[in-house]
């Protein structure tokens, strides 16, 4: 922790940022403290109130973070964008404005009767010891609603504020889960390093997470995100009555059958060689889809570039549906389902391909044993199945795939609370002058310097 803080202090110095203790409420050696967290980066208005219990002195000797987390309140309102083909920024903004303050008020009131850990008198009202809020990346005006509310709460409670990196929070979701499952103050897992796969409506990233603020981007999309690709495919494949948000989830439900025991029938064989992954698989309807980058100029070498690409696949699906729905053609439900399965298979195999390329090229250099898969698309059960099968068939069955539960995969304030706690425990809090960040890299090699490079961090003085 001290090393992390020293390095950051040196970097902050280079950027002419002066460190000063905020002088606000300090949590010191308190064994348990209460956190209020807010998420408003996109179309979800989410608020959580949690208690974090630090490790006892004995457990503190264990390497890494030790502790446990208890969820007191958690609630999310999603903006109604049904009238639009996607998220309308103004609809989301108005939804945050209308819902955030009432949600905070409601959840605080529900906590009023619970015992507080500070010296605060319960009869004075609810007590909060730390406020965490998404600072970026995301839609700036939407982030502002959350950030300004969080600043007001931090001032009112006279407690520290933490401006959280949304994607870092997604990457830490499995550690959040471990903290939630810890009955007592045990070690938080997975321990670093681990690989993070973040698949959402706006991002597709493969990340080597070697520390709390150390996330090296190994591959990201060069065009649209995986979630966007599935949403666009769903819009053309599904009928209007089947098209319910989230569209990726509607596409998944439409595609597969469940047996009487509730098991999904995937009838899927993973490609055992990379070559097989790049080949078109003809369907019984005579068409086939090309895997991304398989036919890229530059041949084999180009197909191995550490990037993701989903635009070509999306366009092929849109073209195929257009030709099928023209007057001369029929497009049965079975054929639609086949297309829905194919677009998911190809997209998920493409996702897995970069993980496999990284694992095979790094040999024994990568010391981890876990791949965390998070973001809205990670809730897709077929994605989970494909990734497991692809790792197994290529000799990586010893690597664990960690999928947080669906409720933690989509945008939520619990992950913001957790990332805030991890940053606080590592010695950081945010200055009250921070603003929302539309773009904010996770990787310190990026122009903005990554999570710690953007300024606004100050030591938490504990
Ligand atoms: P996020 O940006 O993390 O909130 O994730 C939203 C994205 O996840 C959207 O593109 C959704 O369509 C997608 N999504 C949600 N559930 C599923 C699912 N079961 N299968 C595929 N995509 C999904
Ligand atoms: Zn997200």
UniProtKB/TrEMBL annotation:
Chemical reaction(s) catalysed: L-threonylcarbamoyladenylate + adenosine(37) in tRNA = N(6)-L-threonylcarbamoyladenosine(37) in tRNA + AMP + H(+)
Residue ranges constituting the Gcp-like domain according to the UniProt record: 79-418
Class in the EC hierarchy, top level: transferase
Presence of the UniProt keyword tRNA processing in the record: yes
Cofactor(s) of this protein: a divalent metal cation
EC assignment: 2.3.1.234
Recorded GO MF terms: metal ion binding; tRNA N(6)-L-threonylcarbamoyladenine synthase activity
Keywords: Acyltransferase, Metal-binding, Mitochondrion, Transferase, tRNA processing
Subcellular location: Mitochondrion
Superkingdom in the source lineage: Eukaryota
Pfam family of the protein (one): TsaD
Coiled coil region boundaries: none
GO biological process, one term: mitochondrial tRNA threonylcarbamoyladenosine modification
GO-annotated cellular components: mitochondrion
Cofactor note text: Binds 1 divalent metal cation per subunit.
Family listed: Belongs to the KAE1 / TsaD family.
Function, as annotated: Required for the formation of a threonylcarbamoyl group on adenosine at position 37 (t(6)A37) in mitochondrial tRNAs that read codons beginning with adenine. Probably involved in the transfer of the threonylcarbamoyl moiety of threonylcarbamoyl-AMP (TC-AMP) to the N6 group of A37. Involved in mitochondrial genome maintenance.
Assembly behavior: Homodimer.
Protein's UniProt name: N(6)-L-threonylcarbamoyladenine synthase
Organism: Acrodontium crateriforme
């Amino acid at each position: 922790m001290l090393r992390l803080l020293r390095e950051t202090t040196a970097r902050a110095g280079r950027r002419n940022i002066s460190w000063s203790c905020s002088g606000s409420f300090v949590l010191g050696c308190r064994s348990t403290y209460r956190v209020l967290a807010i998420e408003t980066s996109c179309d979800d208005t989410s608020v959580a109130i949690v208690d974090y219990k630090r490790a006892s002195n004995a457990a503190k000797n264990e390497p890494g973070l030790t502790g446990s987390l208890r969820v007191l309140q958690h609630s999310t309102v999603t903006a109604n964008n049904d009238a639009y083909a996607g998220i309308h920024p103004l609809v989301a903004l108005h939804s945050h404005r209308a819902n955030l303050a009432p949600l905070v008020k409601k959840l605080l009131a529900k906590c009023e009767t619970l015992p507080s850990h500070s010296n605060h008198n319960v009869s004075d009202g609810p007590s909060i010891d730390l406020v965490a809020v998404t600072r970026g990346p995301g839609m700036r005006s939407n982030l502002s609603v959350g950030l300004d509310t969080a600043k007001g709460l931090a001032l009112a409670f006279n407690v520290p504020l933490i401006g959280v990196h949304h994607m870092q929070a997604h990457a830490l979701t499995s550690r959040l889960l471990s903290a939630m499952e810890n009955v007592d103050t045990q070690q938080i897992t997975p321990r670093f390093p681990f690989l993070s796969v973040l698949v959402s409506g706006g991002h597709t990233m493969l990340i080597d997470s070697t520390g709390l603020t150390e996330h090296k981007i190994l591959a990201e999309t060069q065009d649209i995100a995986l979630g966007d690709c599935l949403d666009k495919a769903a819009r053309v494949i599904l009928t209007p009555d089947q098209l319910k948000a989230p569209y990726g989830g509607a596409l998944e439900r439409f595609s597969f059958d469940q047996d009487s025991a509730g098991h999904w029938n995937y009838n899927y064989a993973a490609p055992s060689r990379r070559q097989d992954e790049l080949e078109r698989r003809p369907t019984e309807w005579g068409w086939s889809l090309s895997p991304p980058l398989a036919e890229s100029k530059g041949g084999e070498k180009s197909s191995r570039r550490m990037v993701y690409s989903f635009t070509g696949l999306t366009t092929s699906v849109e073209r195929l549906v257009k030709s099928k729905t023209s007057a001369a053609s029929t497009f049965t439900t079975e054929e639609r389902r086949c297309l829905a399965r194919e677009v998911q298979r190809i997209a998920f195999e493409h996702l897995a391909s970069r993980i496999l390329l990284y694992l095979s090229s790094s040999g024994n250099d990568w010391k981890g044993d876990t791949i965390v898969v998070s973001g809205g698309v990670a809730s897709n059960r077929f994605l989970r199945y494909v990734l497991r099968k692809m790792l197994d068939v290529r000799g990586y069955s010893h690597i664990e795939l960690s999928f947080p539960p669906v409720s933690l995969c989509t945008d939520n304030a619990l992950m913001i609370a957790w990332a805030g706690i991890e940053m606080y425990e590592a010695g950081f809090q945010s200055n009250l002058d921070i603003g929302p960040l539309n773009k904010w890299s996770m990787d310190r090699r990026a122009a903005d310097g990554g999570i710690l490079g953007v300024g606004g961090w100050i030591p938490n003085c504990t």
